[in-house]
Specification:
Blueprint (H helix, E strand, L loop, with lengths): L4 E2 L4 E7 L29 E7 L6 E12 L2 E13 L3 H6 L16 H8 L22 H4 L1 H19 L13 H5 L10 E3 L10 H7 L8 E4 L4 E4 L1 H4 L3 E2 L10 E3 L5 E3 L4 E3 L2 E4 L7 H6 L3 E3 L7 E4 H14 L3 H12 L11 H19 L47 E9 L4 E2 L20 H10 L26 E3 L1 E7 L5 E9 L5 H12 L6 E6 L2 H4 L3 H7 L12 E5 L5 H4 L22 H9 L3 H4 L4 H21 L1 H27 L4 H16 L19 H17 L10 H22 L6 H30 L3 H7 L24 H5 L4 H36 L12 H28 L4 H4 L66 H49 L10 H24 L1
Parallel strand pairs: 9-13, 11-15, 16-21, 21-22
Antiparallel strand pairs: 1-2, 2-3, 4-5, 6-7, 7-8, 10-13, 11-12, 14-15, 16-19, 17-18, 19-20
Organism: Psilocybe cyanescens
Protein name: CxC2-like cysteine cluster KDZ transposase-associated domain-containing protein
Pfam family, one: CxC2
Length: about 1050
């Protein structure tokens, strides 16, 4: 296999690794899949690059290889010319870029595993036919397994003794003369009495030699030996003087600094005797300090300054740990003295002022504002933000003809953005903008304040009404939630693909998550998007998007209105969309929207989780300072995403290839069971629905009518009764009504069952799709349980006494094992005594609806599986394409197991609530052997094989070949399972067709989106490299942007910094 690419010098670069001949695509290290030894070695020395000119015949590839040979006892690399290869389409290979691909990655070795999975019992977890052999782990030593135990037993006392040894003179206890005096031939040499705690060599010197050593190291800690112990002394008391503006340290007219001058350094607060230059070459005192890497807190009478090292250290510490400046200063103060005696006067305010200015200057420097002739004052809106390199930027990382791309690839040039609000980043009424205007508001991520707040104020009287169950933010917009606050939170727009925050994409929320706030923020980022297709994901897009174009036309200011050719598509994040529970809601589902790949659009949650800890510091800051702080931390977030883009894209590409192969092959196995004309009909239905504009009017191929009294209908009925109850003047003890309380508990129970399945590793494609969501689902469950526990004492009044009298024996602290104390868990007569009136009836109705729903789901899924079995029996093994993916059948099995578990739990709860009765004849105990399809007339006689049975197309049959040990006993073949006597199992042919249609179109959507994801990630890889190359050239052009009349030292600094930044971009591109 050979892959080639064309560089700017019209040469073909063929790279490979000498040992195993792995190709190196422009050093973009994308490992091949399935074989460990194909992975690329990270050492640059292992790669050999051979430039070969491209000849006129573009169908001929010229190449060479390097091999290792032993010559004269030494191993050398020899280049071996390979014969020219005539390859059709070679020119296309030269002009295209693509990482390695493998359409067999993550698939089963053959189709036998799929066949076995199709006919297996639903409730049996199969194991792979050829499980990977476990490597024999090397036995670990006690040091590896229990390092602290070994240290405690063997080395603890030794370490303690060595640390204590430092309290004395150690190896220099016998020293009687100063070693520096001896070297300088001082006669007689002085006595050694001073030791530096910062220098690597801890020898003792005299006072004069100690000052000589530290003439250029003024921030070291010095100790003096008093013949019995060491005491701390400062270099100032020893006589050290620092002369500024003279490299030789001598000035004809030195001017002393303020008597109380202190320097804040990383190791302590230092009192330094500094002298300014007052001779003919004098400059302003604050400039003299800056040129010795000391940052002054003021300019006229400097009393406090901080070293650049301290400011860099504090800046990085704050960005990585979200620690406050106050905590850092406390640490610095304790590093100076821990006794509370002679503590230096607090310089916290000065340090806070310096670090604020420092990080603002760093943002200006990183954005290249120092290289612009207009300087910092000429900074435009959003210019200090770190841009996403993988997003489409016309003229930078898009082809010239991107606007004329074919319809099938236009989604590659669609921008996918996410919008969300955060209510943790509040700001209290502690200052105002006249006192604290901020240093660069609107220059990075926060929207410019004046036009934004003017627009929000103009829409202050807008009233919002919502029927969306997910729209809880508006409920907080007009209550005491906003009392005493400047801002109740922030709203932001984030790139869905890279999780990077948009420039001018964050705005303060004055009073909840109002349309006016989110509209302006969204309109601001639209001005930075030059592509035509934009998908906007928002938790409440189903409500927000309805009248968006009306608001754009009548309310939006002209400077934020979108371009006339902009095409907007609404979506709801995958995590939130199921919670809306509204009919025909698939139009907002990312599972069915074409062109989005595998985007889940939950990235704002990732951003908020990393920045919520800032709320303790920012809520009491002034409004301007808070915005500067948020800009700084948002910039760090974007930079971390920027430099990790290569690694993250590689990981996503591997997952995307695996998912594409699994879903494509799985969908093919399902499609083979259908006739070609039916496939075309359903495909046309999907295309018509996808191509229909918003709001869609074409028939929804993903919609299927429910049978029976479903949970949703019961919820609506209970809500209606509660509304009537409130209308009669009654009230509930909490805003969460009784029916919502019970529904929440049942939802938590279902979440616990789902997490149990994931934790056991039996879910569908756990290692590919669900491993990352397991932690997230656990966190959501824990949050829900905490809210549930607050409601328990309200509706179950005597629960605390019951828990005291009958303590739980469960000692698990995991949320998935927590006892929820639903009424069905509490036995009679305690249940009636401790719960409120009517609560028991609500849980009975909901449990009954759960049994109906879950049985309905089991029957529907079994019908899909039976259709797949019918296809398998029509085709002779070996005469059809092998289906090497079990994704569809795995999903069928997993859904059946979850539905059966839900039925069993609901039945146990129902039995506990109403007791035994006639209902048990209808809702029987569900055994594993009951979960099976139906055969002809419902039975197969004993001894009758499938070859003897007669069946027609459309009839359901599950056990249709000789059973194995894995299939259980033969008892399950003799009678019709009772689940098919229920209304859920007695659907018409139209119902059966709807079931198969919905399953097929969903499988089609998964396969298409998996293919889109591979194409999207490939495109993002290319765009990232193109952006880095453009950015490197941009920095190179900045070398000589300043006027030639500027000081030579400044011009040299601007040129050197520009080149260093260009090297960083090139290094990142090479690393990616």
């Amino acid at each position: 296999m050979q892959e080639i690419e064309r560089d700017a010098n019209t040469h073909v670069i063929i790279g490979f690794q000498i040992n195993n001949y792995q190709l190196d695509f422009h050093n973009f290290r994308l490992p091949m899949f399935s074989k460990k030894h194909w992975q690329i070695n990270a050492r640059e020395a292992d790669f050999y690059h051979d430039p070969i000119p491209v000849l006129g015949d573009f169908d001929i590839i010229h190449a060479s290889e390097g091999i290792q040979r032993t010559i004269g006892g030494k191993t050398r690399t020899i280049r071996v010319e390979l014969p020219p290869q005539c390859v059709a389409g070679a020119w296309e290979q030269v002009t295209t870029w693509a990482p390695p691909d493998d359409d067999t990655y993550a698939l089963e070795p053959n189709g036998d595993w799929f066949d076995e999975a199709v006919v297996a019992d639903v409730m049996v977890d199969l194991q792979p036919q050829c499980p990977a052999e476990k490597k024999n782990k090397k036995a670990q030593s006690l040091v590896s397994k229990r390092p602290n135990v070994v240290w405690k037993m063997t080395y603890r006392q030794t370490y303690l003794d060595e640390i204590l040894r430092w309290a004395g003179r150690g190896d220099f206890r016998q020293a009687s003369t100063c070693p520096d005096c001896v070297v300088r031939s001082v006669n007689p040499p002085n006595l050694p009495a001073y030791r530096c705690r910062e220098c690597f060599n801890p020898d003792l010197t005299c006072q004069d030699c100690c000052l000589r050593r530290h003439r250029l190291l003024p921030f070291h800690k010095i100790q003096q030996w008093t013949s019995s112990c060491f005491v701390d002394v400062s270099l100032r008391t020893l006589g050290l003087k620092l002369q500024l503006n003279h490299s030789g340290g001598h000035c004809n007219n030195p001017i002393p600094c303020h008597a109380n001058m202190v320097v804040l350094h990383t190791n302590r607060i230092h009192s330094i005797n500094i002298f300014y230059c007052g001779c003919a070459r004098t400059i302003a005192p604050h400039l003299q300090l800056l040129r010795r890497r000391l940052y002054p807190a003021s300019q006229l009478c400097v009393k406090t300054c901080a070293s650049f090292e301290l400011l860099c250290h504090l800046h990085k510490l704050a960005l990585t740990t979200k620690a406050s400046t106050y905590d850092f200063y406390r640490c610095l103060e304790k590093s100076t003295t821990c006794l509370g005696i002679n503590t230096p006067k607090s310089r916290y305010q000065a340090l806070f002022r310096m670090i604020l200015q420092w990080r603002h200057l760093q943002m200006l420097k990183w954005a290249g504002r120092a290289h612009d002739v207009s300087g910092a004052a000429g900074t435009s809106e959003g210019e200090l933000a770190v841009r996403c390199p993988s997003c489409p930027h016309p003229g930078i990382n898009l082809p010239d003809n991107w606007e004329n791309a074919p319809d099938g690839v236009k989604f590659l040039y669609m921008m996918i953005v996410c919008m969300d609000a955060n209510f943790c980043l509040k700001n209290q009424l502690v200052s105002n903008y006249s006192q604290d205007p901020g240093l660069g508001t609107g220059w990075a991520y926060m929207v410019p304040r004046a036009p934004y707040e003017a627009y929000v104020l103009s829409r202050a009287n807008d009233e919002y009404t919502s029927t969306c169950v997910g729209f809880q933010a508006l409920a907080k917009a007009n209550n005491k939630f906003s009392v005493g606050l400047w801002y109740t939170g922030v709203g932001a727009v984030v790139c869905s693909r890279s999780e990077m925050i948009f420039p001018v994409g964050v705005g303060n929320l004055q009073k909840g998550e109002r349309y006016s706030n989110m509209d302006y923020i969204f309109g601001s980022i639209l001005q930075l998007i030059a592509v035509h297709m934009i998908l906007i994901s928002y938790d409440i897009a189903c409500q927000w998007f309805i009248n968006l174009f009306k608001r754009i036309e009548s309310d939006w200011p002209e400077h934020i209105k979108p371009r006339p050719n902009a095409s907007l598509t609404p979506a709801i994040p995958k995590l939130h969309e199921p919670m809306h529970m509204q009919a025909d809601h698939q139009v907002y589902s990312l599972n069915f929207i074409p062109g989005v790949g595998l985007s889940d659009c939950k990235c704002p949650e990732q951003v908020w989780s990393s920045h919520n800890t800032l709320s303790n510091a920012t809520k009491t800051q002034g409004p301007g300072l808070r915005q500067d702080t948020l800009d700084d931390h948002f910039g760090f977030w974007n930079w971390m995403k920027y430099i990790s883009m290569g690694k993250s894209l590689l990981q996503r590409y591997k997952r995307a290839v695996a998912e594409r192969n699994i879903q494509t092959k799985g969908h093919r196995g399902l499609s083979n069971s259908l006739q070609d004309d039916l496939l075309k009909k359903r495909d046309d239905m999907c295309l018509a629905w996808e191509n229909d504009g918003f709001p869609k009017k074409k028939k929804n191929p993903y919609y299927m009518k429910d049978n029976g009294l479903t949970e949703e209908e019961v919820h609506k009925e209970l809500a209606k009764r509660e509304a009537e109850y409130i209308a009669q003047g009654n009230t509930f003890p909490h805003t969460t009504t009784a029916s919502k309380f019970i529904a929440l508990g049942l939802e938590l129970e279902e979440a616990q069952r789902r997490i149990h399945r994931l934790a056991k590793g039996t879910g569908v494609n756990l290692t590919i799709r669900q491993a990352g969501s397991l932690t997230e689902q656990r966190n959501v469950l824990s949050t829900g349980i905490r809210a549930w526990e607050q409601l328990l004492p309200i509706y179950i009044l005597g629960l605390l006494q019951y828990q005291t009298d009958y303590p739980s024996l469960s000692a698990s602290t995991n949320a998935k094992d927590a006892i929820l104390y639903l009424l069905s868990f509490i036995p009679e007569p305690h249940r009636s005594c401790i719960s409120t009136v009517g609560l028991n009836d609500i849980e009975i109705r909901l449990c009954h609806a759960q049994m109906v729903d879950s049985l309905n789901s089991v029957c529907q899924i079994l019908k899909v599986k039976t259709r797949m079995i019918q296809f398998k029996n029509k085709n002779i093994r070996g005469q059809r394409d092998s289906t090497r993916s079990t994704s569809v059948i795995d999903r069928v099995h997993e859904r059946t197991r979850l539905s059966s578990a839900k039925y069993r739990a609901a039945r146990v709860a129902y039995l506990a609530l109403v007791g035994p009765g006639d209902w048990e004849a209808t809702f029987k105990k569900l055994e594993d052997r009951d979960i099976r399809g139906v055969g002809r007339h419902g039975t197969l006689e004993d001894g009758q094989g499938l070859e003897d049975s007669v069946w027609e197309e459309g009839e359901f049959m599950l056990f249709n070949e000789v059973r194995t040990r894995r299939d259980g006993t033969g008892e399950t073949r003799r009678t019709l399972s009772w689940i098919w006597t229920m209304p859920a199992g007695q659907g018409s042919e139209d119902d059966q067709d709807d079931i198969l249609r919905v399953e097929w179109v969903k499988s089609r959507a998964r396969a298409i989106q998996a293919k889109e994801e591979v194409m999207l990630v490939k495109e993002e890889m290319w765009r990232t490299l193109a952006f880095l190359d453009w950015k490197a050239n941009w920095w190179c052009d900045c070398q000589f942007s300043r006027a030639a009349t500027e000081p030579k030292a400044l011009l040299e600094g601007t040129s050197a910094y520009a080149l260093s930044q260009a090297n960083i971009q090139n290094l990142l591109a090479k690393h990616f």
